[in-house]
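Hey L., structure's done. Input below.
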Amino acid sequence: MASLNYYYGVLDLEPGSTKEDIKRAYRKLAQQWHPDKFSNKPEQLKQAREKFELIKEAYDTLIQLSYAETLSFGTRVSVRPPSAEDHYQTGIAYLQSGQRQQAIESFTQAIRKRPNYLQAYQARAFTLEQLGLALQAKADFKKVAELKRHTSPSADSSLTEAEIAFQQGVTQFKARKYGAAIESFTTVIQLNPNHIEAYRYRSQAYFRRGYDDQADADFRRMRDLEQRASPPRQSSSHTRSRSFRWQCLHTLSRHTEIVSAVALTRDGKKLVTGSYDQTLRIWSVKTGGLLKTLSDHSKEIYCVATSGDGKLVASGSADRTIKLWDLRTGELVRSFGNLILGHADTVTALAFSPNNQFLVSTSQDKTVRLWSLKSGKEVYTLKDYPEAILALAMSWDGKSFVYGGKSNLLSLRHTKTGKAIRSFPARPTKALALSRQGSLLAVGSGAEIVIWNRQYQKKVFELKGHSETVSSLVFSADSQILVSGSYDQTVKLWHVSTGRTLDTLVGHQAAVCSVAYSMDGKVIASGSADHTVKVWQQR
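Output:
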């Protein structure tokens, strides 16, 4: 395994160089050796590709391992001995850069400092499993189960065995070893026939191996166990007490991680969902059936959007790229961004222009970018926002858009030119929505929603009812209703003219991360941290 000193040499830097030095050197060398520059020189193309990959590897390693660098070189001296947490974080950084042996050493150091460090055992087990060291990994998984059992003394030995197998299965699943994962989850189910999560993961593993019948059988069993765990009579009564007008039509449970984004097509027939499990899924709204699974991102998906003509889907990810997909075929049309061009951090929000010519994206890198769908090139980049940008809303006519995030500022811009129209003072926000007529702007400010008259910059209402952060907002097509999702696990419908709460939709078991509202006002979709999507229908 290459040393840090070697990677500094790749970037023509001295050991201990600052992050800014690393970034500057990387940009220079990456531009010099980018394979696109050698497309007309086939005899040099292979060398350029290899050099470019090595430059990327060196950059990713050094930029992530600033702490590990401090330990390795005398140019900087740590003011205190490294703690167990320091060793653990260094191990995570090594793991992210692909240096598994160093990661194991760091996790081992963390465990020596803190013998009952559960997360370090879990991380080391995961890393050992990736290296094919099954016996050592099993020992660590057993220790994880033992530590968990101490926090829950009532667990018996069979459940402990099941937990070990389950942890192994999850690790194998994440490493895309689906055959081995199926075996592990089968062991879990044999030991504990009511293990809901084992059925959920085995269903996913079967599906990815192409065993649709087995996947569907596990999925039905999982849903049956979920319904038993939440007695229908109690759940129904609770829901009726909160909503007379809406009912849950489908609960979609194929994602294995947080469902961070949902979007409905304009005709309301298809639903697109994005998840931290790195997949997009396309569903039939009518039947709840899974139509397609799309996967090309290498990290968590944070946002999705559908084009006005219903032909395209865009997804943004923590891998810093935007993917454009054909909604009908599921094929990848184009990727926006790479290590040199595009966003330098997680893509947080997306919006198509109604004429399907442009796509707007925001990011934690504090920028807004306008992309041409035809050419795939950036039209312009806005860099004047002082903090990470988390929310975006496009006007219904496509002439303007508004964005905000961690700063006390909202910015309204012309779509075509990027020029500023006006700014709004506001608390940090994760959710924005513009009404169809463009006269109203809804802003999620903590647990409250503020409705602004956009033209006159006046507050119309402050909607209070959620108990935790508002994560998502969308207006109805007639601008009379506002739908909100919140970390308090609920979806609310508000009457825009009066500010009155019309309905509260209850059913998710964790934070609601995203909501979508059909054009005809008859369907709402909500994605949650409980790994599910709910499709709500008017009674």
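The domain at 232-538 is CATH 2.130.10.10 (Methylamine Dehydrogenase; Chain H). The first strand starts at residue 246 and ends at 252.

-- N.
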